[in-house]
Specification:
This protein is about 75% helix and about 0% strand. The chain has helices spanning about 1-10, 20-50, 55-70, 75-85, 95-120, 120-130, 135-165, 175-190, 190-220.
């Protein structure tokens, strides 16, 4: 037991590294929030555009969705950082990681919203149009509120999973939490830094998990 405490819970050993750890933690929080804030609305926008049935555009949308759902996040981060400069677009490591994760999340979010749209009975559309609402008004006032409620459980689970991909930013030298704690672990030859990192990840994502569980219960369809 003493060896476990000494190797994994030697917190005094971290005294000189707390500022670096906290900076890494804040960067991870910022990246996670930006990934969700950009990815989910973008996915909803793509689903709405797809709904209008513009064939050439829908073909591009389907390719976009299939491509970004298929490619590994790590590969996409590397391409965003190292390949885009050849096309005249230079991104810093932070931005490259957030953009890569956000487009992946948007692709999954679009499919989730699209499934939600298809799950709404066509009678809802007919009822809205029969009252004089336009297609867009019916979508905004009747369909989308139902779609959002249907989509919350799968969407929140996917958002959490992809947000944790911020750790992959270490491959392009983003000083996020895992990158920082791994470096500290190497410097001090003690894995306590990784224990601290795990605890901070838990502190970051556990409240989000609990919040999404509350959302699922609050917006669930009432049971008979």
């Amino acid at each position: 037991m003493d060896q476990i405490v000494r190797y994994f819970f030697d917190f005094p050993l971290m005294a000189d590294y707390w500022p670096d750890i906290l900076r890494g933690f804040l960067i991870t929080v910022e990246m996670s929030v930006l990934t969700v804030v950009v990815g989910i609305p973008l996915g909803l926008l793509i689903a709405i555009i797809r709904l209008y049935g513009i064939k050439p555009l829908n073909a591009l949308i389907i390719f976009y969705i299939d491509f970004f759902r298929s490619i590994p996040q790590l590969v996409l981060i590397v391409l965003a950082y190292f390949a885009l400069p050849y096309f005249g677009l230079v991104l810093d490591p932070f931005t490259a990681t957030v953009c890569a994760l956000a487009v992946v999340l948007s692709a999954f979010a679009e499919e989730i919203f699209w499934a939600g749209i298809n799950a709404v009975h066509k009678g809802q559309w007919e009822a809205g149009r029969s009252t004089g609402l336009s297609f867009t008004q019916t979508l905004a006032y009747i369909i989308l509120p139902q779609v959002v409620r249907i989509s919350i459980p799968p969407l929140t689970n996917r958002a959490i999973g992809i947000s944790k991909g911020t750790t992959l930013g270490s491959v392009v030298a983003v000083p996020e939490l895992l990158n920082v704690t791994s470096s500290i672990q190497s410097n001090v030859a003690n894995p306590t830094a990784l224990t601290v990192g795990a605890l901070l990840f838990l502190a970051l994502f556990l409240p989000f998990v609990r919040f999404t569980r509350w959302l699922e219960q609050a917006y669930a369809h009432p049971r008979s």
